[in-house]
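Recap quiz, item 2
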Amino acid sequence: MELTVRNMSAGYNRNEILHGISLEIKSGEKVFVGGANGSGKTTLLRVLSGIIPHTGDVLVGGWDVSSMKRKDVAKLIALMPQTSDMYFPYSVRETVLLGTYASSGNSFFGSDSEAVQYADKCMEDCGISELKERHLDELSGGQLQRVLLARTFAQKSPFLFLDEPGNNLDIKYRAELCDKLNDWASGKTGDSDNTLVAVFHDLEQAKRCCTRAVMLKEGRIVFDGGISEALTPEMLLKVYDFDIGTYSKI
Amino acid sequence: MTKKGTGLKIVISAVLCLFILVLAIRQGSVYITLKDLFGIIGGHITGKGTPGGIEPMMDSIFWTIRMPRAIMAFLVGGALSISGACMQALLQNPLASSYTLGVSSGASLGAALVLILEISVPVLAGFMLPFAGFVFGLLTVIAALMLASAIDRSVSNTTVVLIGMILSLFVNGMMNLLSTLNSDHSKQLVLWMMGSFSARGWKHCAILFPVCIIGFVFLFAMSRKMDIMSFGDLQAQAMGVDAKKTKIIAILICSLLTGVSVAFTGVIGFVDLAAPHIVRKIFGPSHKLVIPMSFIYGGAFMALCDLISRTLLSPREIPVGAVTALLGAPFFAYVFFASRRKR
């Protein structure tokens, strides 16, 4: 299943953030979306998930995401947003099970047994099985991030869009996250043809998790190619206005 | 919480609720034994009439006055509470309720117009005031949603709450202006705005009951969506819930529940805020439990408040809205702050 973006522009209210984006992502690819703050990375993930209206085409497997029902989009695309609002203290297990809403056969009476088993596996994979009866307001930032990651995996969608998934994670879990994402994308976790599109601020992590880079600057793609070519001093200067040579001298 | 523990809590809550309901029917200036009370209820349900040994006056007091009044209080309390629980989840605001969106101010304006302009429609007979209250309450919410949609395409929670508050203040201003210009009716309006179950009979219950059933079924069916929506619109969309559509449907259902309740009894606050919070403390945040238990707790709380309102200074009656606030506020504060102190 492919993701095709053709001449897409989008923004909030009258403020256009992304301008004329064209992109093709093949099934099984692991794509890093990079760029400075405000370059449009989060907006791009939200447009690709059909959450923000846009002009141009955004097609997943040939279907236009903006005209699909939300539940059908969620079956294809699991988005893990950067922000995590929480107003009521659900337990970890309840939270992860909510991720099965779109994929579970009966969405009213709760998740079916297959979805429950899968959610348990996702909790185990993210190392939060021992926390499952704890309430969200009792967790640390890193534990919470792993819960949200497990909930995103529990959607069982072939496209995984992650917006800064390494936030709040310590060095061990950051490394494990990359292993987990690589296993997931290569089908080792039981699924196949999984595609990853992720925003990272930690470029080292981006390099470990992804093979392709799409670099944005002021809402436009300025680079699309291999991850190694993207993380050169010249490219960092171009995309982030950051001179790594000067920085390393300090 | 284990399933067994939850089941026990549900049974205890249901028994407590039934006890309060029976208490609300029995207590008052005229007392009745349980046996006679069930005799009267049984006689009317089976169509056999008043059992021997019970005076027709007693039958009339309990069957025609006390029972419909207590049931009405229970239904209104339940309707307001599930509506509050739903609004808090959808707007991710612990202080949200249908009142926040202007239902009560709209209903007040409608009732004020009927009283002042002495409008009467023969078909509606004695229901003109509640009908106008309901229609104006609903119109205010629809206006709030349309304005919010026009300003913000995603109908964000902040926009909805702010527009609701602005409209509420504007409509309240109109209401106060009308009240000042027509001092003959101001006392009647003030009393209506404080809420009462006085003179509410079976005919009122017969209208409110199906509304409660419809509202309850819809909201209960949406309970998983409400769980997801309480994580915010963005996360809800990511998990497969159409946030805008869900919000609009739920707001209209809550407005129906609140509008009809307010229209029959006047403005009664606080129960819609307190009952869902207390239920969440006891049963957790899952709406599959929050919705039914809020109905039970809110209903029992309102029946108790109405009992106090008519017996505390008997034969004088205190507005039930005053009792809900006086009794509910300290209790709610205790429950809320006691649990925070434990953390």
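The radius of gyration of chain B is 21 Å.
Chain B has a mean pLDDT of 85.
End of item.
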